[in-house]
Amino acid sequence: MKNSSLIPENSVYNEYENNVVEIWEKNNFRLGIPIIDLQHIWLIHLIVKMEFYSKGDMARETLNSVIIQTIEFLIEHYSTEERLFQIIQFPNPLSHTRTHRNYVEQLKHIHKKSSESIYKVANRILVLLNNWLYKHILDHDHKYKEFIEHAEVDIYKCNHELVSHVNISKEQVRLYQRITKDYTIKNEIINKNLIGTIRDIWKTYNLSIQIPIIDMQHLWLVKMFVELDLASRTMASIDRMEMFKKTMVRSLQYAKEHFATEELLMKEFGYPRLTIHSEKHSKFTKFLKKRNEEYKKNDLSAAFNLVQNLKDWLYSHIALDDKSLRNFFHKDIIAVNQFVKQLNVKGMLKLHNGQVALYQEFYKR
Ligand SMILES: [Fe+2]
Ligand SMILES: [Fe+2]
Ligand SMILES: [Fe+2]
Ligand SMILES: [Fe+2]
């Protein structure tokens, strides 16, 4: 690999990256499973970084910390690969996992040798890592790539499952995207953050009504709110407008369908506060229509107002008014679920695939 020791400090970062790109492009490292490629790219990045700090009089502490980071990351990468073997039911994974253990043991052993200077340790580790890079990825790891291709495994499903178990930093994603131009990982991470945030709100405010159909619809509203809130803080203005437009259309349709479901249930089971509760629903629908009017007039405050309305609704109506439905329906829950089934048979309920999938993700059914 290229010697980077003569380059000025401020361009070190680009130099690392250029070296990583060069190494990646010269070799057939790509396996086609986004999270694995991302981790291999990051390992190459760590090796390049270690090479840089192992030259001459660079900071010992930094070099030591790069060595530790690399060993820890390698362990994480191995556990991702081994999880992949389980998912794809890779035949005879033991010989592969044994080589993983071997590498880690050898690295740890070299690192522990306190009698040697850290530069010597780094050089010995680099020999092993460079050997690993070419031998292990190009030979051993390519074997499971071939298996995946042969067995026609659904790579994106696999990737999705793996991503939910690993930590991925923004830096790793940026480097991966620069090299591969693949944006799958970014979407996966956004999704992961999204689900995590929805889960936090759901649990913190104890929002479950314990009626599956209502919980499913409420979860969807939380999702719309979180998505829009995230977009308003992180996205570029064009994407933000796009998200707002989508949420506007969805929330009007959502309100219509969800309120109809809740009101049908309240009517059927004689909920005493039906009128007051329904009035609140109509008031919220009016807010949504108002936001829609503002949007059509290109009023820039429409998106901000919509986030506020959804937030107020979530923490006032769903967390308080709707929660009193939980106690009321609790004693009749079997009859309630039966009634919901009948509504579904009569075509009076709209079950959207996205809502069902989100609910299933939460309650893993
Ligand atoms: Fe690997
Ligand atoms: Fe491996
Ligand atoms: Fe509700
Ligand atoms: Fe309600």
Low-confidence region ranges: 1-10
Distance between the termini: 50 Å
| Arithmetic mean of pLDDT | 86
Q: Helix-strand pattern, N to C?
A: HHHHHHHHHHHHHHH
Count structural domains.
2
CATH architecture designation of the largest domain: Up-down Bundle
Strand content: under 5%
Summed up, the helix count is 15
CATH class of the largest domain: Mainly Alpha
Write a structural description.
By secondary structure, this protein is an all-alpha fold. It is built from 15 helices and no strands. The protein has two domains: 9-182, Up-down Bundle (Four Helix Bundle (Hemerythrin (Met), subunit A)); 188-363, Hemerythrin-like (Four Helix Bundle (Hemerythrin (Met), subunit A), Up-down Bundle). The model is unreliable at 1-10 (pLDDT under 50). The chain binds fe (ii) ion (FE2) (4 copies).
Short description:
With 365 residues, this protein is mainly α.
Task: List descriptors.
365 residues; mainly alpha; 15 helices; Four Helix Bundle (Hemerythrin (Met), subunit A); disordered N terminus; single chain
List the SSEs and their pairings:
Layout: H1 12-26, H2 34-53, H3 60-88, H4 93-112, H5 118-151, H6 155-163, H7 170-180, H8 184-204, H9 212-234, H10 237-268, H11 274-296, H12 301-321, H13 323-330, H14 333-345, H15 353-363
Helix pairs in contact: 1-2, 2-3, 2-5, 2-7, 3-4, 3-5, 4-5, 8-9, 9-10, 9-12, 9-15, 10-11, 11-12
The structure holds fe (ii) ion (4 copies).
